[in-house]
Design goal:
Layout: H1 11-30, H2 36-42, H3 53-76, H4 78-97, H5 102-130, H6 133-147, H7 149-164, H8 168-188, H9 203-215, H10 217-247, H11 254-279, H12 281-304, H13 310-324, H14 328-336, H15 343-367, H16 374-391
Helix pairs in contact: 1-5, 1-6, 1-7, 1-8, 3-4, 3-5, 3-15, 4-5, 4-8, 5-15, 6-11, 6-14, 7-11, 10-14, 10-15, 10-16, 11-12, 11-13, 12-13, 12-14, 12-16
Length: about 400
Amino acid sequence: MSDRARPTMGMVELVGFLAVAMSLNALAIDIVLPGLPALGASLDIAEPNRRQLVIVVYLIAMGASQLVHGPLADRYGRRPTLLAGLAIYAVAGLASALAPSFAVLIAARAVQGFGAGAARVVAVSIARDRYRGAEMARVMSLVTMTFLVVPILAPSIGQVMLWVASWRWIFVVLAVAGAALALWARARLDETLDPANRRALTPRAVAAALREVVTTRATAVPMLAMATASGALMAYVTSSQQVFQDGFGVGASFALLFALIAVTMSAAAFANARLVRRVGPARLARRALHAMIATSALAAALAVSDRLSLPAFELLSCLTMMSFGFVGSNLNAVAMEPMGHLAGTASSVIGAVSTVASAILGGVVGHLFDGTARPLLVATLVLAVVARGLLLLAPTVRPPRPA
């Protein structure tokens, strides 16, 4: 079927499609979390903190790969880039399921992360191809609200699977999910890249595009702020299983408590979609960071003074991550606003920087786990403060006057 003959997705289907595309990354992380202890025992991982490499390596590969997928999407189009990435994702999922050793599993997860980078780049690029400014932020909020169903459900799905099957079947599910999205894209996704924005794939052209993205202050500053704030989210992801199960001793209830945090983020994304056109994405992000600083400061103070109970940790984590729910999609939209003419490359740089930086930050915080929530909460406070400080460097943009 040619692109011209292929039906164009309406907004509702497009939001659903982009949500599923972006949720592949959340699925590849959150469904694995309950299986980390079983995985570690099966593959003879003596040091519990090493299990986090299954998450961290995937994230770093996914982030770095976006620097490849972005220029490809700007040259060959969004659709073929996505289909190629999904094929890699699915095959690597099967390789992970069959891994005979921890080293092979880590290698397969790196390859899977490489394929997953295409889904993230193409999803944001398609959104920017069709929308801009506050409208793009609204669409991305709807996408975020929808795909956050995955971190709500995925840990519970993973836990249920462990009751009836081996941890290896978790990776089979990931392979099936990637293949299913590829079939949907092949049947329904049209090409959104404007032929006028198709760029040459030469070292000079790619270097020029990358240089424009990183030297445009209106893009670089929110990108760095988003990367720093996302480090707090990844710290929660990498540390949550140990904090809940080893620190607070909650056992299988971890999946439910983790899901509740994701619910608050989804609620924030829903509220953001309703507020962003009235308040503006930049202002909403700043206010959300203020709230994130306040809640994480209280949590860190309780942790440092050894007065942090499980209910207090859960409540303050929900409030902190709810605040983050107003940060990510808004700063992404602000960073993408000047980059409509090279959306694929810009999306790849923004995604690569935010993903790799947040994965490294999250991995470092996770490695500092000492049996308590103290390292996680102190790090969250520091990262939120740094993110808000970075936004002080952003250029001032006056909102357009109503016609």
